[in-house]
Amino acid sequence: MGFLKWVLAIFTLCTYLATPTLSDSLLNKDELASISANFLNLAKRTDLFDWMVKIRRTIHENPELGFEEFETSKLIRNELDKMGIYYKYPVAVTGVVGFIGTGKSPFVALRADMDALPMQEEVEWEHKSKIPGKMHACGHDAHVAMLLGAARILQEQRDYLQGTVLLVFQPAEEGGGGAKKMLESGVLDNVDAIFGLHISAVHPIGTVTANSGPIMAGSGFFEAVIKGKGGHAAIPQHTIDPILAASNIIVSLQHLVSREADPLDSQVVTVAKFKGGGAFNVIPDSVTIGGTFRAFSKESFTQLKQRIVEVITRQAAVQRCNTTVDFDTENRPFYPVTVNNKALHEHFRDVAAQMLGNDKIIEKKPTMGTEDFSFFAEAFPGYFYLLGMVDETKGRFESGHNPFYRVNEDALPYGAALHASLATTYLLEHQVKATTQDRNVRDEL
Ligand SMILES: [Zn+2]
Ligand SMILES: [Zn+2]
């Protein structure tokens, strides 16, 4: 604990001796290195590591889907109770928001998602999912364990926190828009910045992958029932064939990206669902098609949405069919583009470089995948990064949503330490700035 005392002493000195000119980073490299290295050592401490592993395995054995994370939420609250951390619950059905620190500004949030996927685990191991058809195949069990690990570190260091850390345990990341619901609750209204991470089965353990600016696409889902008139397949003139109509619609939808979008502006329209007919000699009454669309700007996203409606309804009309397009945003809200804040990117790079080394920071190329962390990053400055977990000596690691997905638990301390370091140093830097600004104002008065 002592190492933070001298760091704090330096800040106090900085505050009173500060020149009116504010630099962007008020922590020097030695101070950052001290916090980052010590937090990683704390997170690797056997008792803390074993405790995180136990939590992760317990959650893994009992996976719960979006907005049904009741037992997971209970486990989190029990651990927060044991640590003496105040929290708000329920937030967005099962969500929990913990608070550590002064209870005053600045407020920095750390986020973990809690939900599992509706799929069967195929990995045979001691802590296999006990719930048939449900599995933590995206690492959210590890995310919860890492944020609780950070909570332990931060709670131990709470006297030195120069502001408040919010621990955001959110439901329903996998399509349910849990982040959006948490924002609507108002609990996060005062947040100044938020950090989130996702464990990565692509990158080596001890590395992080990140970038500033847009890193993941905005996305939406659509579905349309193409209604025709069923009948005998050998007498098509007495029918209105919805299968042929749907086929034409799908081909026409391909033109939206290939002919209407700027080739330098990445977009996707995919029809992934086509349901209709059940016999070789019957033309069905209707066909259901559905899919997803993605874009990297609000303008392109809005344009795609409008054109999807136009193409589906008008092409259906050409084929004498009726249809309406349903985006069902109540159950599947549109996800905004995930945009990483530039200043937080610099902050993240400083912390990660001191903890892991400059060569362990990998540049993230944007992808058409989505994250509902984007809702947070749209509401206030946000930063989302990937945490590597691949260790080739431990066999092959399948990517997320695979029934053979495994988590390398050795990555847990890195996540916990990064969470805790990012929050602590953010508060220290911004507290010093705020105090210095206050002082300047007073000086002027
Ligand atoms: Zn996922
Ligand atoms: Zn995930």
Automatic annotation (TrEMBL):
Classification via Gene3D superfamilies: 3.30.70.360, Zn peptidases
Details of cofactor binding: The Mn(2+) ion enhances activity.
Keywords on record: Hydrolase, Manganese, Metal-binding, Signal
GO BP field: auxin metabolic process
Cofactor(s) the protein requires to work: Mn(2+)
Keyword Manganese: yes
Peptidase M20 dimerisation domain segment(s): 218-316
CDD domains for the chain: M20_IAA_Hyd
GO molecular function list: IAA-Ala conjugate hydrolase activity; metal ion binding
GO cellular component: endoplasmic reticulum
Residues reported in the UniProt entry to bind Mn(2+): C138, H140, E174, H198, H401
Coiled-coil segments: none
Alphabetized NCBIfam families for the sequence: amidohydrolases (TIGR01891)
Family note: Belongs to the peptidase M20 family.
Protein name according to UniProt: IAA-amino acid hydrolase ILR1-like 4
Organism: Nicotiana sylvestris
Lineage, top ranks: Eukaryota, Viridiplantae, Streptophyta, Embryophyta, Tracheophyta
